[in-house]
Structures are given as C-alpha cells and as structure tokens.
Amino acid sequence: MSAVSLEKKIKYTFSQPSLLQEALTHRSYLNENPSWKTPHNERLEFLGDAVLELVVTEDLYARFPHEPEGKLTTLRAALVNYQILAAISAQLDLEGNILMSKGEAKDRGRAREVILANAMEALIGALYLDGGMAAAKPFIDRFILPEIPGILAKGSYKDPKSLLQEKLQATKKMTPVYKLIMEKGPDHKKVFVVGVYLGEEELARGEGMSKQDAEIEAAKKALENR
Fold it and tell me: Choosing from 121, 130, 213, 217, which is the catalytic residue?
C-alpha cells in the first residue's frame, strides 16, 4: 500500500510528507540502507506516545467522572499497550508500509507487535507535528478510543500483577516477588525473562520487550495456573 492510500485511510493529507516517511522508517532499515536520508522513527514515537496519553487521559477523565484515579490509570494502560496498538494497526494495513530490515521483516509474534505499536505512536507524533492536535486527536478518536467498550467488557484493564497479589495475600498471606532471570537478543530488540515467586516456589515465567511487560506476562501465567 502506498503512502497516499494510507493517507486516505486516516483521512489526512500530510503537508510535510517527510514526516510520514520518518514515522514508517524502523531503525533496522537504516542498518541495511545507510544512504537512506530519512531518520528512523524513534523520536516521533517518543512524541506520539505523549500525545496519545494526553488525548486518552482527557477522554477517560470526561467519560468516567466518578471513577477514581487508580481505575482511570489502569484503563489508560490497557488502551495504549502495544498489543492493542498493534491490533489497530491492522485496520490501516500499516505493516505493509513500514520500512525495516529483511531480518525484522521475517520476525513474528511479540517482536512484530512492538514494531507495529511503535509505528502507530510515531504516526501520531507525525500527525501532531504536521497539523497539531487538530490532526492527531481525530485519528486517536477514530481508531483508538473505540476500543474502550471492548476493554471494559473483557475486564482486560485489570492489572494482572495486582490481581495476583490480591489472590495470594488472601489465600497464602504472602506477597509475590518478581526476579529477572535473563536478558536475550540484541540491544535493539532485547527480550527480558522474569519469574514470579512465592517464597522459593517459582509460579510462572514471562517474557517481554521490557521488564514490566515480562512481569505482567508472568503474572498472567501464574493466574492461569492457579
């Protein structure tokens, strides 16, 4: 799919097309194409993450006027996590537009989801730089905020770590502990392996692109096993 087709899907035409190209350039592509003049998308990802969080926070604050800060925080985290963003990217056929190395192009699973989620955040950053909130907010309103009812229906906003701690404190009178077991993979796509323990007993292990993701995955598996 061309950049023009992507612009039609998001209903926005960039006045600075180079921003869209930057949003779709993964770091790995530059390693194989050193003459490529466009920067990779990590700076735009950083900006887009902040814009996304602000828009989502404002919406949740207005949508749920009687909910406490804690629940709003967990709802926001569930809405902007990499799995949701990666799934939304499929609506835009974003994967076919991202420039990445041949090796990254072969990756599937969690690593691919993270690339797609990061590109979504970079796209939001590009929209913001090109047209301000007038460009970024309608995109978030159209593609991301409609996920809220599904998250509420599934209860997927609930933090697995908190649920596991509540369950173990109620049944065992003990608090689980998370320990980093290993790190694997190259720096640009490092995977962390974390174990969750009750005393000396290992309840489960989880993997993630960050220690936090790995801890959450370990908590999910521990809940499934109990």
Answer: 121
* Predicted pLDDT of residue 51: 98
If you classify domain 3-154 with CATH, what class do you get?
mainly alpha
For 124, phi then psi, to 5°, come to -65, -40
Residue 93 falls in the annotated catalytic set: no
Cα–Cα distance for residue pair 179/94, rounded to 1 Å:
36
CA distances from 62 to 81, 124, 128, 133, 172 (A): 21, 22, 22, 18, 39
pLDDT in tens, 113-146: 889 999 999 999 999 999 999 999 999 999 999 9
> Helix, strand or coil for residue 81?
coil
In the chain, domain spans: 3-154, 160-225
Options 3.30.470.20, 3.30.160.20, 3.60.15.10, 3.40.50.2000; CATH for 160-225 is: 3.30.160.20
Report residues of the chain scoring pLDDT below 50. Answer: 1
Active site residue 215: no
